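Exercise 7.
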Amino acid sequence: MATATTSLPAGAGRQARDTLLVLLGLIVLWQLLHWLAGSVALASPWASVVRLGELLGRASFYPNLAETALAFGQALVISLLGGLAIGVALGANRLAGAVADPILVALYSIPKVTLYPLILLFFGLGMEAKVAFGAIHGIIPVIIFTMNAVRHIRPVYLRSARVMRLGPLETARTILVPACIPEIVSGFRIGFALTILGTLIGELFASQRGLGFLLMKAMHSNDTPTILAIALLLFAFASLCSWGLLALDRRLHRRT
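Solution. The predicted structure, written as tokens, is:
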């Protein structure tokens, strides 16, 4: 027990040190690229941080931030809950899962930008299109991870459900989902990142408000400090959330 207790803080400290070294390396690389390319092509790390502070100090920035947060939140709920429900249903039915598996992998590999005209046709311009575009990015990995987890569940769990005469919904709620939690969280982690990507791409193409709209506006005026400031904000948010989900994922896998 003493060995396990002392090794955990050492491992956590090593991970924190490695993370810090990676961040420092990225900052140094960023600064070197800035010196090579010049401020017109690439703003420096310090200039980007200063511009981010300026953006956060403007009252006009927060409606755009709220627009993106609202679209991302709705898309994430659809991706996670919809992916979980469809994945459990496909995984529980072996024939449906075998048919859907190659189709889902093919859809996952298709660049979703090609589907954007269809999204605009069905949902028009506005919040609905951004939510739909974010959801179609995030829902497929959640379905795939959940479906494969249910398909590889231990047979004893399913035999227990039959012995207890549980219905399909009760089996999914009390046995399938709890038994597949580690793999489901892995799917959530990937779906989370792709939902952010899809929401921002949706705002880049057709939006009058949001962080993607601000990015496109800054690109048109070649405002590299603003571009990198928004990218830095998104990177910090995505990294923190991904780090938390990864820590949860590792803890759950250690328990299984």
